[in-house]
Input
Amino acid sequence: MIGKQSMLFRKRLISVILLAGCTLSLGAAVQGLNGLTKTRILPVDEAFGLQVLAYVDEVKIQWRIAPGYYLYKERISVSEPGSEAVQLDFPAGIETFDEYFGDVIVFEDHLNISVPNGSVSNQGETVLEVRYQGCAKLGYCYPPQTRMIDLP
Output
């Protein structure tokens, strides 16, 4: 008799342990899904806040780069529509390896570039074509962006 009760006890104990394990696994899975829904990729203009300021002697182009995002140096250019890109003087960036582009230089947090007015037309109103591309560190890369900026 003791053998039969012992066997029944063992079966119930194993069932309770399996049920507890499944409950914990399900809880962890739900927690993981909740974590995914909280992580979202920002719209491009939130990830890379672009601001262009025109002064008498220069145009300042500034990006406010959201945490966890970066811009590629080689994917940034400024020109007048239909013209050659202006030579830009970049600050030091971060050297890194990118799975898509290989060895690259990127910018995080912010990027400020000055374009001397002599580099662009000063014949009345001017339009600047600002091109850039960046990625989220979570693995999402935005398509190349082009912004047409009217300067006074």
User: Anything to note?
Assistant: The first helix runs from residue 2 to 38. Confidence is low (pLDDT under 50) at residues 22-26, 32-37. Helices lie at 2-38, 44-47.
